[in-house]
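Hello,

Following up on my earlier ticket. Below are the two sequence lines again, exactly as submitted.
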Amino acid sequence: MSRVARLPFAAVLLVLLAALILIAVIAIGVGTVSIPPRRVVALLAAAFDAPWSGRDAEPELVILMVIRVPRVIVAGLVGAALAVAGTQMQGLFQNPMASPDVIGTSTGAALGAVLAFVLGLAQSHVMWIPALSCLGAALSLAVVYALTTRRGRTPVAMLLLAGVALNALLGSLTAFLISLSWVRYEVAQEVVFWLMGGLDDRTWTHVWLAAPLIAIGLAAAVALSRDLDLFTTGEDAAATLGLDVERTKQRVLAVAAILSGAAVAVCGVIGFVGLIVPHGLRLLVGPSHRRLVPAAAIAGAIFVIAADLVARTALAPIEIRLGVVTGLCGAPFFLWLLGRYRREVSA
Amino acid sequence: MSLALDGAGLSIDGRWLLRGASLRIEAGRFVALLGPNGSGKSTLLRLLAGVWAPTEGTVTLDGEPLTRVRRRALARAVALVPQDTHIAFAFSVREVVAMGRHAHLGRFERERAADREAIAEALARADVTGIADRDATELSGGERQRVLIARSLATAARHLLLDEPTSSLDVAHALDVLALCRRLADDGHAVAVSLHDLNLARRFATDAVLLREGAVVASGPIDRVLTPAAVGEVFDVAVSIATPPPPDTHAVYVFSKR
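Thanks for your patience. The regenerated structure is below:
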């Protein structure tokens, strides 16, 4: 019989924020040209009035502001987005094994991006990949929702099954497109690389593209916190406590799709963040989404910034794909989780 | 203050789960809903709670059809504890009970003194103050029912509806839960509970509603409704009811299928 022991939430938030700043400064400093943390802070402080492009710009500042800072910001945004999308899915499905990928939106977004590569659009303008990714995410959500909704009700068990089917279908379509383009070696290579997820060559364009979508998604997730808590004792109980259950489902699905779609749009497919971060944080701050959502957002940012740091430094000058790193960290954690779960089930 | 069905029924995919049910749930009464599996007990409770809208007839709160009552106002007036509640995440007991304040709080509002008082009082009345910090996923069946009743009390609802609250409980815990229901009725709540155990119903309820095949067969004070003839008719069994010592207890003997 365990009492619920929770760390004070303010302390957890402070520690997470401090860790986020620390890992960001380190990640900005480390690379082919290494810049010590103190210098990073000084340069960042100077970046507001010094030019960071053109002839007069200090080379270190250019590296920082043109290459490293946008990359770290995109990593943080993507991490926060995936972690919070994961909390939304786990809260909706009442299952700590759920992740943003379960309803097929990530696969839809990936298919959109692959289409952009195969049609040659990706090479013509940098915005085509994110645009088609977002479209793919939105369409796949619409399909899943339309398939599973009858008389205004959307049973979550049906959502899950439709998600499995759609994931398989969209995955096959993606593979089909890759196999069609195999003769064009460089396109196929780009697609495969992109599908492994990565943050190479991310620019301020990607920051400005992802930031508004992810900000909206995070704010909406915070606003939905208390509503999502009510799902824990079942939908009928939630309804009699005053919740519009079906509308809440629509909102939660939309938030998760915006967040995971935006994440895939700017960095490809990276797995396990949306699974392990919410789960780990739930152990720390408890399942209440008012605490879980902000904590998971910060922890997700930390996780992806750190994973990207590993990806580009571990085997330098070769860059490991980001999705490979998160998978290598995430999969063992998932197996451990499975073991824990099995013990609970048999107990 | 009253919650009433008037000729209410529900049909799903052309099949009637309940037809033409009329019933009034009143303050100070503990109504036991009795009937075989599939007789419409859960459907009746869901119609009363406004979870489902009736296909025929009306359900009214103080004379106002539920379809016209605002969702949050309804939540503050009527509370339902569904059957076999599974709690998926490790919320504390207090956090579960605090969810009862959902319809009292704005989206970004924090609990105020009045909310905390309501939660504390609800914990105390359902006798779960001592386990307020426990992990709600690790409760025994009886504790879980009392916690969910506490949450219903925290909503400040005067109508409490419980769907087979004793179905997975041992005898002692079943007694606990039904004694609590009776106390709440005596304190002025309107309580409706679906039950399978006729003896427990006879022991704690003030009124009974007998259902069979989606229709209300009889309703009224339990001593008048729960007759051997009526019970035999509804459940299709042979029954006798005796009043053995100690006094004021009534035993329903079911001795064979008819």
